[in-house]
């Protein structure tokens, strides 16, 4: 693994940093339209869809260049583009598995945020065991009719389109009867109900589909290939953006250290307490481990290799780290860590509660739980690692029942 940047990479990083200094929004982004404006500015700057084909609006950029941009955006605490699922999951899936007509129809609109996307995978009884999904798509000749329910749908309330997994053949093994579709979310027969989360926000939604229509031209891949296509999608979600996540954690860690310098307990700064210093040191050491893991994934991508099941190692590691990090932050901050957006300004200024887009340390702590569930729970990642990397026997139903005892 070569950890040295080429002179070209160093120059490219400087140009990205200079662009951000000139273009980063000066005021907090509050509305969806403000997020679209920022998204389009990033796209016009050449910093979205960098690895996508130039023929469809991308940049054919190397993985290293993409990682540098993600790294600099996280370092600058830049707002996220508004079409995150379209950019990170849907678009790459269409690039790999879509037809030329689908690429022409959808990719540029994703990049320009003209159409916003969600991912319709999980169901009330098919989350970690995604292959157990029951939403049906019935072939009606020139189109499909979809009936069923999805849940935990991020961005569902603002999405124009969705990447859908639905069962097209209930008579075969559950992994083989699933097909992937693109579905119009703005049609009769689709009802979206936002879900209130423990954080107080509603990023997730339930989606109910009653005789909703999907055109045959919006089928991705062949009939029954949905499970294999889903592995592509989940691969992008699990391992593709690890370095940017680590940079974001490093930014949060720097803020935590600053808070420990300012906040006093028993008349002296927290940073002078040897126990606090030990906790901060432990977070830093774990953060370095995560950084080197992300660099290993980047090295594979630079070689033209896909991390495959190794993406599960990356995802398991950083999501469990995030949870430990935020638990440790709460221990260090004490009661101040519980402050939310409505807290008195003098208390909020005392600890600088701003933590990226999360807003408060309390929000970041609650949200850290989600990382061990979305994109495949930690339990699922351990199964993938055990079976596909370590070569252990597959888990059986008897194993799961025995474990429940």
Descriptive report:
The chain has 13 helices and ten strands. The protein starts with 6 loop residues before the first helix and ends with a helix. The protein is 47% helix and 13% strand. It has helices spanning 7-23, 32-44, 63-75, 84-97, 100-111, 226-239, 242-262, 274-302, 310-333, 345-351, 361-367, 378-389, 397-404, and strands at 117-120, 136-139, 143-150, 161-167, 178-184, 190-194, 205-215, 219-220, 264-265, 268-269. The chain is globular and about 75 Å long. Residues 401-405 have low confidence and may be disordered. A hairpin with a 3-residue loop joins strand 2 (136-139) and strand 3. The chain has a four-stranded mixed sheet. Strands 2-3-7-6 form a four-stranded antiparallel sheet, with no helix packed on it. It folds into three domains: 7-82, Acyl-CoA dehydrogenase/oxidase, N-terminal domain (Butyryl-Coa Dehydrogenase, subunit A, domain 1, Orthogonal Bundle); 117-222, Butyryl-CoA Dehydrogenase, subunit A, domain 2 (Beta Barrel), CATH 2.40.110; 240-404, Up-down Bundle (Butyryl-CoA Dehydrogenase, subunit A, domain 3). It is of the alpha+beta class and 405 residues long.
